[in-house]
Design brief:
Layout lengths: L1 H48 L32 H4 L2 E6 L5 E5 L8 H14 L3 E4 L2 E8 L2 E8 L1 H76 L3 H26 L9 E4 H18 L3 E6 L3 E5 L1 H18 L5 E8 L3 E8 L31 H11 L3 E8 L2 E8 L6 E3 L4
Parallel strand pairs: 7-9
Antiparallel strand pairs: 1-2, 1-5, 3-4, 4-5, 6-8, 8-13, 9-10, 10-12, 11-12
Length: 425
């Protein structure tokens, strides 16, 4: 159990760190792309203002004073060398979209045909800003027609890719180091829980030994007192409470063993249908004596590898719980079906289902009745049932069928263990 807790702690920590790394990487990439686009858009605005070239005042390294269409970067990146280091070209089109003029003075790698093809593609796309190939463009009005300024963003894209790769490498390295540290420190983190758990197990074991001896003596003395004094109600009450205490101690020991390694479980081929029908038959008389109707709909020949003793105990716990808490003259329905999993459901009439904390029914010593009136249970049975289901790779949940019915659903998935229907020969 402690190993599973440590493993779960590492997995949760790893997932959390991975989520943070992905978010940080996404933010870094988004801000980098946004900053690059803003810078290129500022250059495109300046070229469009200058009619296909940078205005003369850029030679002095000053940005234009005219209010721009997009927010300026918070720092001034334009210098006297910017007009000479920025590769760009401009294409003018008529109102019908025909190319009228191309300015390739400030670029060498683009032919007139390529420039016209890109301009027509941008014009037909209707987007005023964007990317086409490695070029950032801006389409604007020019003397009643359209003009498109293209900025070569190859260097920017290359720098962005490098920075993104470096960021990813650094973040992944940090994540790996963090996971290694978590794995190394996880034992220390769960150590207090492990010690508390071991003390709890030791307490249960010690309590079992310490309580069984006096209980045995008490029950023996009761038999002696009864033989000398004869039967009376006080001795009967004492014997009943002694039996209750003995049962409680035994259940505590069973629950403690359920928490231990599953190596103690003996798996073998089990006819789940037959075992369930046997248990239902045992409880039919009990249910009838209490004025409750017990019916079953069990699919036959459902076989799986399981511990027969534990499975029968699981059935007994759930049926005992249903009989105890079923309303007067109520119904109890048991069903077993085999689909992808073996699914057992036990439903019974229970008018207080709306007031019951269903998510707490499997907590140890939890009792649905707030007054804690004794009904024959100790609040441990369902915890044992949950442990048995988990030991077999399955699970058990409580649910509200309707306003007057409560149900328990046990699912036993394959999970590497054989669950099949017998073939008929």
């Amino acid at each position: 159990m402690i190993y599973k807790l440590q493993k779960k702690f590492i997995i949760i920590s790893t997932v959390s760190i991975l989520a943070v790394v992905i978010i940080v990487f996404g933010l870094i990439t988004a801000f980098s792309v946004s900053s690059m686009n803003r810078n290129l858009d500022v250059l495109a605005d300046s070229i469009s203002e200058g009619g296909g070239r940078f205005p003369d005042r850029f030679a002095e390294g000053r940005p234009p004073k005219k209010e721009e269409e997009i927010p300026r970067p918070s720092f001034d990146f334009i210098t006297q060398e910017t007009p000479f280091s920025t590769r760009h070209f401009t294409v003018w089109l008529s109102s019908e979209g025909a190319v009228e003029r191309v300015n390739l003075e400030f670029i060498h790698s683009v032919s007139a045909e390529d420039a016209e093809a890109m301009a027509k593609k941008v014009y037909n796309g209707k987007a005023y800003r964007g990317w086409i190939s490695n070029y950032r463009y801006k389409m604007y009005e020019s003397d009643g027609a359209k003009a498109i300024a293209f900025i070569d963003g190859s260097m920017n894209l290359s720098s962005l890719l490098q920075s993104v790769m470096i960021s990813a490498f650094v973040l992944l390295l940090c994540m790996a180091l963090a996971i290694i540290l978590i794995a190394m420190l996880s034992k220390r983190v769960v150590k207090p829980i492990a010690e508390s758990y071991e003390k709890q197990k030791q307490f249960v074991t010690d309590a079992n030994h310490e309580l069984k001896t006096p209980l045995t003596l008490i029950m023996a003395n009761l038999d002696i007192a009864e033989s000398e004094l004869g039967k009376n109600e006080w001795l009967d009450d004492m014997r009943e409470e002694g039996h209750r205490m003995t049962e409680l101690v035994n259940q505590l020991v069973s629950l403690s063993r359920m928490d231990e390694d599953s190596s103690q479980i003996s798996f073998s081929s089990l006819d789940l249908s037959e075992a369930l029908l046997d248990t239902v038959a045992e409880f039919e008389a009990i249910a009838e004596s209490r004025g409750k109707r017990l019916s079953s709909n069990v699919e036959r020949d459902v076989v799986l590898n399981a511990d027969e003793t534990l499975m029968r105990r699981l059935f007994s716990i759930l049926l005992d719980n249903a009989v105890k808490y079923c309303d007067e003259s109520g119904d109890i329905e048991v069903a077993l079906k085999l689909r992808k999993h073996a699914v057992l459901t036990i439903e019974n009439t229970y008018s207080a289902v709306s007031e019951t904390e269903l998510n707490r029914l499997f907590d140890r010593f939890y009792r649905a009745d707030k007054a804690r009136s004794f009904t024959g249970g100790y609040g441990i049975g369902l915890s044992i049932a949950k442990s048995i289901a988990l030991k077999h790779g399955g699970d058990i949940v409580a649910y509200k069928k309707d306003a007057s019915h409560i149900g328990f659903k046990v699912t036993l998935p394959v999970n590497g263990r054989e669950i099949r229907k017998k073939s008929y020969s």
